[in-house]
Write a structure and sequence with these properties.
It is a single chain. The protein is an alpha+beta fold and about 325 residues long. The strands form 3 sheets. A 5-stranded mixed sheet has the order 2-1-5-3-4. The protein has a two-stranded antiparallel ribbon with strand order 6-7. β6 and β7 form a beta hairpin. α2 packs antiparallel against α5, α3 runs parallel beside α5 and α6 packs across α8. The longest helix has 30 residues. The radius of gyration is 22 Å and the shape is globular.
Length: about 325
């Protein structure tokens, strides 16, 4: 059986482990000893929560990929995901479709979305060692905003057609406020200290940024080659190139969001042609999500179009952003 940590094979001798649950327990202990968070287990490419792995003997499994994160990575990735969701809520509020029922479905979905945000924020603050009452949000604190989000979830559960616009406006205001709080957290001393604990040194972070800049041209070329391979039916070669590119984007976004608290750099203040680095990164992430959807639907034409005509143009001035980020750090 092949055992991996974050898709990288590791050499581990199985002794008393007879079932997959035993392997997961061993990796969990390994992660806890290093202050990591064991996020999920991919068992033969099927995702399972760590505490809900199937009751299988190790002889029935070919590969276990254990996804672990540092606490800082867990906080940053959670905030990134929450900010993308908040953007979708604000977009929905701008034109809630109440004509064919889809608007009502989306409004009711806010019940789960708002509850998830509250739960996620509570987990993030726990990892940061902070309380909601300690985090400012305009002229109040985060505790008040979280209570309003809980109230919003309750209203969404009972929403009627006539109330969609009012609920959407309220949701847009609360989620826009939540995004401002997230930006505050990203620049907080709490997150800075958590990130530094997961780094060898700030110098390693700077070296990572320089490596990203030097790799960018070849990765853009890699993206175009992958699009060509998909168009020519060479799916295996395309998939390998695309995975390399996705890994690069992960390293890039992780480095950006680590640099923000460590060097006190506001990604929203770094802009090229009026578009902030914060918005640029989220646009790239949204395109990756669209690509993933196209792959799941085996829609190779849409996948290739996104890669060649949307993602490539989005990357063309990324080096300018990286240069500005380096300049900010050095200043």
């Amino acid at each position: 059986m092949d055992i991996q940590i974050n898709s990288y094979p590791i050499n581990i001798e199985l002794e008393n482990e007879k079932k997959i649950a035993d392997v997961i327990s061993s990796v969990s202990r390994w992660a806890q000893e290093r202050d990591f968070i064991f996020v999920e287990a991919l068992i033969d490419d099927v995702s399972y929560p760590v505490d809900q792995v199937p009751d299988l003997g190790i002889e029935k499994v070919e590969r276990v990929n254990c996804i672990v994160q540092s606490k800082a990575d867990a906080v940053i990735s959670s905030i990134e995901e929450a900010m993308r969701y908040a953007d979708r809520v604000v977009k929905f509020a701008a034109s809630p479709d109440s004509g064919n029922g889809s608007g009502l479905d989306q409004a009711r979905a806010l019940e789960g979305g708002a509850a998830w945000i509250v739960e996620m924020v509570s987990s993030v603050l726990f990892l940061l060692g902070a309380e909601p009452s300690q985090v400012p949000s305009g002229d109040r604190d985060l505790a008040g905003l979280m209570e309003d989000l809980k109230e919003l979830a309750g209203r969404a559960a009972k929403i009627t057609e006539n109330e969609i616009k009012h609920l959407a406006d309220r949701a847009a205001a609360l989620f826009a406020e939540m995004n401002n709080v997230f930006r505050t957290i990203m620049l907080s001393e709490n997150l800075k200290n958590l990130v530094i604990q997961s780094l060898d040194s700030p110098d390693a972070l700077i070296d990572g940024i320089m490596e990203i800049k030097s790799s960018l041209p070849s990765q853009v070329e890699n993206l175009l080659l992958a699009a060509g391979d998909y168009g020519a039916g060479r799916d295996a070669e395309a998939s390998e190139k695309l995975q390399s590119f996705v890994d690069f984007v992960f390293r890039y976004t992780r480095t950006c969001y680590q640099a923000a608290p460590v060097f006190q750099v506001d990604l929203g203040a770094i802009a090229v042609d009026g578009v902030s680095l914060d918005d640029k990164n989220r646009a790239i992430q949204n395109l990756l999500i669209e690509m993933h959807g196209a792959l799941e639907n085996n829609d190779i034409i849409s996948l290739s179009d996104i890669m060649e005509y949307e993602l490539k143009p989005a990357l063309e001035n990324l080096e300018d952003y990286v240069d500005l980020l380096i300049e900010k750090i050095r200043s």
